[in-house]
Amino acid sequence: MAKTSTAFDLKRFAGLAPFSSLTGKVQLVGLGLLLVVVVCALFAPLLAPYGPRAEVCAAFASPSHHHWLGCDDFGQDLYSQLLYGAQVSLFVGLVVALLATGLATTLALIAGLDAGGRAQDRSGWLDRLLMRLVDVALALPLLPLVIVLGVYFGASIWTQIVVITLVMWAQPLRELRSQILSIRAATFVEASRAMGASGWFVSMRHILPALAPLIVPQFVRVAHNAILIEASLNFLGLGDPLTTSWGTILFHANGRAAFLTGAWVHWILPPGLAIAVTIMALAFIGYGFDGTLMRRMSVKGRKTGGAAIRSKPPQGEGGFLQIDGLQVVYQRMDGSPLVAVKDATLSVQHGEVVGLVGESGSGKSSLALAVLRLSDPAAGLTAGAIRLDGTDLLSLSDEDIRILRRTRIGLIPQNAMNALNPVLTIGEQVMERLVGAGVPPARRLAIAKDWMTKVGLTPKHLSCYPHHLSGGMRQRAVIAVALCCRPDLLIADEPTSGLDVLVQQSLMDLLLHLRKEMGLTMLLVSHNLPLIARHCDRVARMEHGVLTEVGSDAGPCPLRALLETLPTLKEPRRWAAPALPIGNPVGEVDEPPLLECLHLTKQFPVAGASVYGLRRKERVTVLDDLSFTLQAGESVGLVGGSGAGKTTLARLLLGLCRPDAGSILIKGMDWNSLSRADARRMRQKVQMVFQDPYQSLNNRMQVGDLVAEPMRIVKGGGWADRQLQICEALDRVRLPTDRAFLNRLPVSLSGGQRQRVALARAIVTCPSLIIADEPTSMIDQAIRMEVMDVLASLRVELGTAFLFISHDIALARHFCDRLMVLNRGRLVEEAPSDALIADPQHAYTKALIAAV
Q1: At 779, is the pLDDT very low, low, confident or very high (cuts 50, 70, 90)?
Q2: Within this chain, do residues 686 and 835 fall inside the same structural domain, yes or no?
Q3: Considering its fold, how many domains does the chain have in total?
Q4: How far apart are alpha carbons 811 and 332 in whole angstroms?
Q5: At 368, which helix (H) or strand (E)?
Q6: Which candidate in 99, 166, 671, 802 could, as Cys together with 664 as Cys, close a disulfide (CB 3.0–4.6 Å)?
């Protein structure tokens, strides 16, 4: 395996805009102007005909061919002073920018890490102290403060640098700290901390690279402000009059009344223009920084007539939704084409539910999004036609297609848990959809409350923000947003992904009820083959971008064969653990359990009702007196509905937060009593596969670096050892190990591929315990069993224990030795897997089993 590329990419690091864009052109102009000024400063001794203090002509001499800008009152050449003055002004500006931005970045990291750490571990006093200092610094008037400090410390270049730095650090600190808090809350940062990464590692590996597009504009902004302040100080006489800078030239001109005579044209105007050009150049450069700009492919010239590949519709003259000969092509970053959908033809009749299945990366989502014309900007619909009820969607204007999306087409996106706006409440987002659909204001609140109830939430959730809800609850809210305007066509891309079987069944019952009540037409995209088989009228299969099969009731033999391979509750366990050696029984008295949880309780504060304008604080119990043990090499399944507390328990076990009551023992050691260093070392033996692969992988890191991250944290072995382990881990999860794949970024991977990369990262260090939070929720059925085989082999070969968190009780039963059923934070039932399925005691357990 070749080593992954580590070449420094300035444009990617700093967020430079593409030079082909308007923003990039503005930035290019700024870079050109700044380059001219820098060249003049660096080569001033060569370009200037005289020294800055050499008396070479008569006082107040006018411009001539020997002295282009004339001379000052001492007979010194003003053109030479202008060139040498660029050295001082640029030096002060760049040094101040370096010091102020460096200080602000360092303090922002300290403040952000202090505020973003575990609430029980850190009081946040350092963050509060720094923010109060920032408030004081920003409240003081800038120029008077600089003047006072300049007078107090005396006149010199270094005094100016120190003084300007002291007044320029506060604003960058506030902005950088705000961004750090946002990055700190990202799941990929939490994943790194869960691996045992220190704050320094997280800062260098994750936060700083993500912060770079903001640091560089801050540097530019401070630089041009520093140049202005330096010129102002020197102009006011607070600088060193013997130092040649643009400001001192203006100071001497003012002292000799050049403003009142014709001398201002050649004495005052040139340094003033030099300052203005430099400031403008830096402003243009700062304007050009945009970390969100990516290469875009224009699709304005898309043809839908003669250039389209017309295919014969499978039924009659065409369906309610008719796709003919569609081809979707993506443009890779290197400019090469990637055909995601090839000559696809599909007909969906009015009121019909058609399922679209296929492996991750087969083109299912690309086909579904093309119907809405919501394909990635780097994608082009190069051929084909899409019609909805006879309307050619590809020929509609942008405004017409927006109206169609608001009124006739609903979308449940694949990554529904992250599709909600984090700064708007659920109610505001439902209302936004209703406003777009033209619903009268008097009916909007009633409709919003009704839809909250239909999707399994409550009207109280309308006032919640997305981060107040669990992943499953957020997904239900997205479904409510999609359906509240009662569209004619619903495109559901993995609508039940990550939800427990009870909620899956209730949501599908709801969708089918709406289909019957409203004549709703559905295109259901999923890798959940049992779901497709139970609820769809016809099934289409995509393979490598090609629609290969269309049948009824999962009729095609390959689909039926795949369905028959899925585990059921009646057949024997597929991944039963082998018998332990006689001399080492589980639970032996002299050997403490690998994991022991005693009376765990965890509450979270939420905003309560408003009383006389005051918000009353309330606390919600997420875990309530939870106790269990897990032996070395054992697999314990934790099943329950969305919001039951499963993920919160996983975060407690990783030390990412602490319980309000109870204790966690790992190999007999109390987690809460460990020092930070010991806790980090302990986390290296406990790895986690997070539920959401779209958030748990850093999109700036390549696949090889992602898998190697736990080893970098442990710092064990050389690069050759890491190569071997990376290849083995990727091979175990059925991913390529070639250089091209190792150099890919997560944004180029499908959801299933992302989750397998996350799984490879978890197993690369051979941990004692793996906490798998819905590890197969984003993986298609074709490879789900293979991944489960990998997990089972790890348990046998390495003695790895698993806490298997899932809403799929059938899958958990086949993999786990014991099952625990969690409902609303309480452990309602625990038993060996076969015993619990054969004779469930609790009503909630019976409901979970009945829904399979």
Answers
A1: low
A2: yes
A3: 3
A4: 37
A5: helix 364-371
A6: 671
Per the prediction, the chain carries an average pLDDT of 80
Q: What angle do CA 737, 743, 744 make, to 5 degrees?
A: 95
Which of 288, 313, 347 lies at the terminal end of a domain, its last residue?
288
Residue 542: is its pLDDT beyond 80?
yes
State the burial class of residue 669 (Cβ atoms within 10 Å of its Cβ: 0-12, 13-18, 19+): middle
Q: Is the pTM of this model over 0.90?
A: no
pLDDT tens digit string along 156-193? 888 888 888 888 899 899 989 888 888 888 888 988 88
> Is a pLDDT exceeding 80 seen at residue 731?
yes
Could you tell me how far CA 821 lies from the centroid of its own chain?
32
Alpha carbon 783 to its chain centroid, in Å, reads 26
For the cut 80, the answer to whether the pLDDT of residue 87 exceeds it is: yes
Q: Is residue 228 part of a domain?
A: yes
Q: Domain check: are 261 and 329 in the same one?
A: no
- Gyration radius of the chain's alpha carbons: 33
Give the closest residue to 372 by CA, choosing from 400, 344, 339, 341: 400
- Please name the residue ranges forming H helices in 654-718: 676-683, 693-696, 703-714
Task: Please report whether residue 3 resides in a domain.
Answer: no
Q: Any idea what DSSP says for residue 16? A: B
In three-state secondary structure terms, 637 is: strand
**Residue 555: pLDDT above 90?**
no
Q: Answer with the residue of higher pLDDT: 41 or 567.
A: 41
CB contact set of 208 (below 8 Å; sequence gap of 6+): 105, 109, 215
The CATH number of the domain where 370 resides is what? 3.40.50.300
- Greatest C-alpha distance within the chain: 109
Cβ neighbors of 330 (< 8 A, separation 6 or more) are 337, 338, 339, 340, 366, 376, 378, 379, 380
- Tell me: pLDDT of 785 over 90: no
Average pLDDT for 688-704: 86
H runs (alpha helix) in 697-738: 703-714, 719-732
Give the separation between CA 47 and CA 39, rounded to whole angstroms: 10
CA distances from 498 to 470, 502, 771, 805 (A): 11, 12, 16, 11
CA dist., res. 609 & res. 615, Å (int): 6
| CA of residue 85 relative to chain centroid, distance | 46
User: How far is the C-alpha of 429 from the C-alpha of 462, rounded, in Å?
Assistant: 9
Q: Which two tokens mark 730?
A: 């990727």
φ, ψ (nearest 5 deg) of residue 16 = -60, 140
Q: Quote the domain boundaries for residue 376.
A: 321-408+487-564
* Spatial CA neighbour of 458 closest among 471, 476, 440: 476
* Shared domain check, 189 and 279: yes
Q: Give tens-digit pLDDT for 254-289.
A: 887 777 777 788 888 999 999 999 999 988 887 766
Answer whether residue 425 is part of any domain: no
Q: How far is CA 63 from CA 343, 381, 809, in A?
A: 74, 64, 90
